[in-house]
Amino acid sequence: MDIQSKLQLVQEKYGPWTAHNIEIAPGIFTIKEDKADRAQQRALIYAGLSTTLLKRKNIKGLKILDLGCLEGGISIALSLQGAKCTGIDVRPGHLAKAEFAAKSLKINQRCKWILGDVTDPSLWLEIGSFDIVICSGLLYHLDAQDILPTLKRINDKCKKNGMAIIDTNIAPQPKQRINIKESTFLYGCEWIEHPEDRNIEERIKHSWSSLENNKAFWLTERSLCNALIMAGFGSVLKQLYPYHEWAHQTRDIWIAMPGESNPNNLPLRADPDPRPIPHPALKIQQ
């Protein structure tokens, strides 16, 4: 059976690709040839970040964990550069498509796919440690109380000389807060993932949403930074260039580096930001 016929069979069984436009053979794409592939674009940025910050010539041989991998596009793009990728997703159809694409490209030996929910503690017992953990398009789908435990598990799975890439939406304003412990709060805004009466079949079909939780919580940038430090990371960086520009202003890339958490005993970033927006001297200049 030719590759086009195999692709059609996978689409008939699991539905069309909705996220990752992968060229599985010359001129044959999982969506269509002229559709831009965001997964490929972001994977190139992640690879560049990894070589720069980990001081490597390339990513060949690196172990990469791809959380909420959808149809596998990011893992596949990085595996084509020689990385060993493990993709985790909660929807079996996503992983079936990812496995098909990886086999079509003959990189299935460098790709591993795991069915599971990243908020399930038992899932993390089955996997080892990684040079890079990618949390791309996932964090803003989590329930508020799952955010910090998930970030802690990401930190636990990062090798001490590795890094985590957090590609996520953030809340533009601190409209709500969640209590972490005692007087420690994270700020952001709630996001509706599903109406409460949506059944499991319909939830599965909404393939870019969570599965179990009806609400998610988007952190502000300051609270994202605070959450990563509370999770045990030593420093948090923001990638400004090279960049992948979304059509909205609430999404960007942050890098969390393992290391001694807060060696200088700095307080967390104040959120909401108490500072006046303009520089005080601007009043003098006016």
Uncertain parts: none
| Span of the ends, CA to CA | 74 Å
Radius of gyration: 20 Å
- Give the number of DSSP strands: 12
In the CATH hierarchy, the third-tier topology is known as: Rossmann fold
Query: Can you tell me the CATH superfamily?
Result: Vaccinia Virus protein VP39
Number of domains: 1
- CATH classification, class level: Alpha Beta
What fraction of residues sit in β-strands? 25-35%
Main sheet overview:
7 strands, mixed
Strand order of the largest sheet: 5-4-3-6-7-12-11
Rough shape?
globular
Helix content: 25-40%
Average predicted local confidence, pLDDT: 94
Instruction: Please count the helical segments.
Output: 9
Summarize the entry for a quick read.
The protein has 286 residues and is of the alpha/beta class. The protein is built from nine helices and twelve strands. It has a single domain (3-261), classed as Rossmann fold, CATH 3.40.50.150.
Fold and architecture overview:
- The protein is an alpha/beta fold and 286 residues long.
- It has one domain (3-261): Rossmann fold (3-Layer(aba) Sandwich).
- 30% of the residues lie in helices and 25% in strands.
- It has helices at 3-14, 38-53, 73-79, 92-104, 121-124, 144-157, 200-205, 221-230, 282-285, and strands at 23-25, 28-29, 63-67, 84-89, 111-115, 130-136, 158-169, 176-181, 184-192, 215-219, 235-239, 251-257.
- The protein has a seven-stranded mixed sheet with strand order 5-4-3-6-7-12-11. Strands 8-9-10 form a three-stranded antiparallel sheet. A two-stranded antiparallel ribbon has the order 1-2.
- α1 (3-14) runs antiparallel to α4 (92-104) and α2 (38-53) packs across α3 (73-79).
- The longest helix has 16 residues, at 38-53.
